Amino acid sequence: MDRFAYILRRLVQAVPVVLGVTVLCFFMIHLVPGDPARTMLGVHATPKKIALLHHEWGLDRSLPAQYELFMKRLVHGNLGESLFYNVSAWSLISGRLPVTLWLIGYGTLLSILIAIPLAVLAASRKDGARDQVVRAVPLVGLGFPPFWLGIMLLLAFGLHLGRLFPVGGYGTGVTGHLHAMFLPALTVALGIAPILIRSLRASLLQVLESDYITTARSKGISETRVLLRHALRNAVVSTVSVLGVNIGFLVGGTVIIEQVFALPGIGQLMLNSILQRDFPVVQGVTLVFGIMVVFVYLATDILHSLLDPRVRFD
Amino acid sequence: MTIAVAEGIADALATEHRSGFRRRWYRTPAFVAGILIVGTVIAVAIAAPLLTSYSPNQQDLNHVLQGPSSKHWLGTDQLGRDEFSRLLYGARVDLRVAFLAVLFPFCLGTFLGCIAGYYGRFLDTIIMRLVDIVVAFPFYVLIIALVFVLGPGARSIYIAITLVGWVSYARIIRGEILVAKRQEYVLAAQAAGFRDLRIIARHLLPNVITQAIVFAMSDIVLDILAIVTLGYLGLGIQPPTPDWGGMIADGQAFLTTKWELSTIPGVAVILTALGLSLIGDGLADLLRPE
Question: By CA distance, what is A266's nearest residue in B?
Answer without folding.
Answer: B141
